[in-house]
Amino acid sequence: MSKSQIIGLADVRQIFGLLGEIRELGGDPAAWRLHLISGLTALLGAQVGLTGEMELPYTLNRMRPANPVDFGWRGDQERATWREYFSRLDISDDPTWQVIYPHVGRPLTKFRDQFMSPAHWYRCEHVQRYRRTSGVDSFIISQRPLLWMNRDHIIYMLRGWNEPPLSLRHQRIVELFHNELAIMLQRDAHNVSTDPCLATLSPRLRQTLQMLLAGRSEKQIARSLALSRHTVHQYITSLYQRIRVCSRAELLAKFLAKPPVGRMTFDIPGLPRVPPAQKGTYREPVIGAHTPGIGDMSRQ
Known about the structure:
The chain is an alpha+beta fold. Helices cover 44% and strands 13% of the residues.
């Protein structure tokens, strides 16, 4: 393995430094997402960064993006072209997503040349129509499932057209970063479950509470948990009694109005909620697994 493809000590320091900065912004979901992609584009030498969540399950002709944030476009026209492509909610002609789709709800981090050869890539009509006119080309895409929210968290890094392609080393940087970010998000989600005043809640009540705090309606919760709306309403009534609140506003104020330093919050105020997805079955991810390619730090 070429030394240029190994993550060095300086890379690891920058990765965990960025994670620490994101945690400090955790109570402001728009700010931490923007800092995430601006920081990663700088670390990778990328031009454009995009992040957000995708409602599960999704198909190639029915995407459900939630809380999208983008950064780094060279001009309004390039950004408008990309937004036109993605706003179609049908990306079945995109060779990237054709490869990603079988991995919906599972961890994945890949760079362009792991999908297909450059020759094949540049022959694709989609690449010439949307990516070239948007001024972007080589990319890394990474997703980690957030099963408690029934979403995939997406990171998409792109270099400019005619710029050197992102490589295996860059893919390993994003993989390590996204693994650690997923652990941080998962840990914060479980903070609700370990709150002393909620210690006696059943698993179903905890799931209901976490979805309420993520902004889900009774109808959305019922679909996600495969329960009737009547049952979910009873769960919410029970939560109000146990937590000693009288409304959803009081519940949100108790847990989210002043989140503890570093507690990550998700939904961005002002963005429309995403329609609920039908319940799907996904394999439990292995988050934080060993990331290959990290060299002996003592020799860097």
